[in-house]
Fold:
Amino acid sequence: MLRCVVRNEWAILPPYQSTLTKEQEACMPEPVQLTTFGVTEIEAQQALDRVKVRDVDYADLYFESRTSESVSMEEGIVKRAAKSVSQGVGVRATAGEKTGFAYSDELTKRDLEIAADTARYIANSPKGHSTVPVPTQRRPTRDLYPIERAKAEVATAERVALLNEIDAEARRYDPRIKNVMASFNTEYKVVLVATSDGTLVSDIQPLSRLQITCIAEDRDNRQIGSFGGGGRVAFAYYREENRHLSYAREAAREAILNLSAVDAPAGVMPVVLAGGWPGILLHEAIGHGLEADFNRKKTSAFSSLIGKRVASDVCTIVDDGTLPFRRGSLNMDDEGTPTGCTTLIEKGILRGYITDKLNARLMGIPLTGNGRRENYQSVVLPRMTNTFMLAGESDPQDIIRSVKKGLYAVSFGGGQVDITNGKFVFSASEAYLIEDGQITKPVKGATLIGNGPEILTKVSMVGHDLKLDNGIGTCGKDGQSVPVGVGLPTIKVDEITVGGTQR
Amino acid sequence: MLEKMTASNSANGYAQLAADVLAQAKACGATEADIVVADGETFSVQVRVGTVDRLTKAREKRLGLRVFIGKRSATTSTSDFSRSSLDRLVADTCTLAGAVVEDDVSGLPDAGHMATEQPDLDLYDDTVLDTDTQIDWAKRGEAAAFATDSRVTNSEGAEFDSSSGRVVLANSHGFVGSYKSSNFSLSVSPIATESATGGMQRDAWYQVQRKFARLASAESIGQEAARRAIRRLGARKVATKRVPVVFDQETAGSLLANLCSAVSGYGLYKRASFLLDQLGQTIASDLMTIYDDGRMVGGLGSRPFDGEGLATRKNTIVERGVLKSYLLDTYSGKKLGLPSTGNASRSVGESPSVGPTNFYLVPGVKSQQEIIGSIQEGLFVTELIGFGINMVTGDYSRGACGFWIENGELAYPVEEITIAGNLKHMLKGIDVVGSDLVFRGRIASPTVKIAEMMVAGN
Structure:
């Protein structure tokens, strides 16, 4: 229950440190009704009326029901299976910059009233009810993850079989693979948002992820390799073209490769980032710095840089929550706003922030549908969805050939940023030396460190090979974890500090 | 006002609930089972630039069930304590357990090993604080930061939290344990601005106590937070070079946390630790003696029994550099052929894992100032960021900021640098342990110095 940590450092957790789980089923034949949560429309309306006193600008109720399941294996056997169910409501009021918030895992009329009274505490006076329109139920206008329930509900035995095949495949890849740890997590989340601006909207959000870690041993030399993927997809996704086996081989390959890795270099040098998951550079270097809350409070290194150049003109970066089946995608955000595609940086110029209702209103800027929360126990914050750089024109081979001496980084663990001074890090888990335009030896993991507002001005080449990650990212902010995506074409950063051990 | 628990949620009420669910699991075919019931109340207020930014209040409860059917096991949890929900939970758990593979070493601890006494470790404070008092603490903490120096121009806010809760653990051996605990904390996160360049730096300071009365003044926390933010202004990069590195208490604590993970049973039996097969071997400098003490009175990591109901105790982990004990629960212990050390940690809905209680490095004699004073040129690290640690190999590379040391003095603040090495060598390379041990969390370390590391900058 200790929550006292130094704030302002937001991170993408490395996949193996993440805890997210999920279950997939879900199609959206009909909107979810309040009665699913044992609450009547009148009770919800009364709770909103109670919290929306005169000087409360906005209030909402967030009902959530979540079922998470996981199976995991190690040492060749599927030892663990777990399931958790949680349900509750979060009640929020905002007045000016203030937010009052309460939540409850009981959904009685009395619990709603208590929560409403707590949430409105931030109002100057608990009097003067304003009129809350009767919410009209609407559906999200699209379904980005239309998964038929029947195709998603699989018996635990099928998940166990999936993991068994993965274990065998990884060990078959190389006899030096001595342990395989694999887990399959699913989450099935039903949310319903009722707001004082007259919205009643629901969504069903399936999510799943397969994660594999291999330990390779060669005499005294031991190494680790990881790979994973997922999204808002059905179970069949993992078996399509034996995707699960390709993940297993990738994890094994990385572990075996790292057995022969040499010490990483130290100091400033050119770095070529491969496409896909290395996009966490964008998430850390600029994404968090462009979340509206930090900019409203003027605590971000990007405060007041709108319209200014923060990247070279080959860089265009967007946050797009509308990509079908993606881990970071949502039909609507957690305030009921449809997600969209927001241009953050256009040809190097900073264009916009990502917002939730509170910050959009206070800053007088557009609402982008990025208000997200981990669960009913958390408050809404502006958060990223899928953040990526658009493809450029360079041939990836030419990009590598252009480097005399540098680093080629293919995969990363996690990253972190200090919003206020802009310094960010991300740690490579698979990287190679580039010598005279050729990829040569693999190097041990090293942390790369840079300055957010500066680093993208040093991007001199952008490949035509945009790739999105496989669906493993979990972003942490203010103690809340949410699933996100990133993407990147191959790019060349002319100089960045590489934290190795060798001169 | 924190609301009082209703009578039906008392420890006795939960013990009865636990007994009912255990009986039901047995009827469902479970050969063994244990159950955790936890509830609590939390209050949190964040103040920013003098006004309330966010106020949160809630009550929570959760029940976690683990069943064994022979050597197969599964775990479930729910926040819904209704009869029908619990019926479903028990049935689901038994079905899940039937779907996994037999695991020879799985099971509860032996019945004869369960904790027999449950000492009061002074973990709970029944002080009830009203909302305005807690807002006032946060406001005073932040105001003190602003008042410390005119360069403190902005704030990420100040936060006061109070929480209290109860844990009941029961198992099919007939063990029933329960304890209450509370936490009170204040953190202040000011932002300082350098007028010439407009460059901003933030830092933070915090305190956490089991007892409200033990909190230091809000003002002292705000002032320290301000001092830490201001001293970072004007930070620059340094040239890449090998130098001695001093870790302050916070960052030294992170090294200790890395060591703690490396000696935790689960990483060891999975062969995912850089300290495999090192019991009885020298793994660190002979200046290092480390204890893990679950019975420290009022400790932030103390508890009368662990996540499996075994008695907690004081374990010697490292003695003068020699690894004396791993941290184990029953399962990871059996995998390694050793008894549990009473370190099972348990999230309500999960199988036990291993965690530290109060894990600390015994202090030496030199002050932080003396340690810095002994260095011609080096780095004093006050913050580390990123995840660049490979627990399998010990390879270490993290982002750092702090101060450059010249001629025994802190010459100027530094940032955008990394420090790199290998934890195996770093632990052996600790050549000074400071005298300044303070318990601010469940892992605590005095200042330490490592003879040499690679610092990467320009």
